Amino acid sequence: MVENQSDTFDIGGELTVNRLGYGAMRLTGEDIIGPPEDEDNAHELLQHADDVGVDFIDTADSYGPGVSERLIGEALETDRDDLVVATKGGLLRNTDGDWHPHGDPDYLRNAVLCSLDRLRTEQIDLYQFHRPDPDTDFETSVQTFAEIKDEGLVDHVGLSNVTVEQLETAEEMVDVATVQNEYNVANREDEHVLDACEEKGIGFIPWFPLAAGDLGSKEQVVTDVADAHDASPYQIALAWLLEHSDVTLPIPGTSTIDHLEQNVAASAIDLSADEYNRLTE
Fold this sequence. Notes:
Blueprint: E1 8-11, E2 15-18, E3 22-23, H1 39-51, E4 56-58, H2 67-75, E5 84-89, E6 91-93, E7 99-101, H3 105-119, E8 124-129, H4 138-150, E9 154-160, H5 164-171, E10 176-182, H6 191-200, E11 203-207, H7 219-229, H8 233-244, H9 257-265, H10 273-280
Parallel strand pairs: 3-4, 4-5, 5-8, 8-9, 9-10, 10-11
Antiparallel strand pairs: 1-2, 6-7
Helix pairs in contact: 1-2, 2-3, 3-4, 7-8
């Protein structure tokens, strides 16, 4: 069998979380715009995630926009020491469905205050720069995150959708606790970013961890391994992420309790060395 990785990770060296978290983007309405049809169900889903041991929840102010953060603030005691809530700023979501990077310092300062209000907390556990803005100097945006941290509005700072070079630049200004980039068993274009995070002890949060079911050339081997474990391909994709590196923090999202429980169960799947190698090749 492949050597078991740790079940937990210390974000920023101090916030201990179970490595399989929950991504709250799908709590919103269709196309990540507006509220869900059933807000009570969204509250119940968040509370159930808490009940089954999910203690790391990731969201962003652009999901809704503002809807996902509000629902989390309503459903959970976000100030609890045993719950880590991460959110992001720096990406606008318009009603036309487009995403627009916005790293202006004044905007970011206002955004973090709005996130604090929606999440009903006095300090955000992990605040992530959602996406570099081509119209704003990257260092200027990151410096704003550093200042927000120094002022006590956030506990830890993370980055999202960055290169290794941008990570190294940001580290000169602030302690980077996590990096969140697209990554899954079928798309490993940012393997070098993951490698850098491993070297530095930085948490790596793979977004799109299930590739929305489109596993490309990996589909057949994932299906074969899933059949051997009487599991779903989605569960095997998550198990591989957990096995691949001990700094990965997958955050699969869902809007149903059944799917949530299936995702959580993936953390108990042990891949054999042969299975892991076939998935990794």
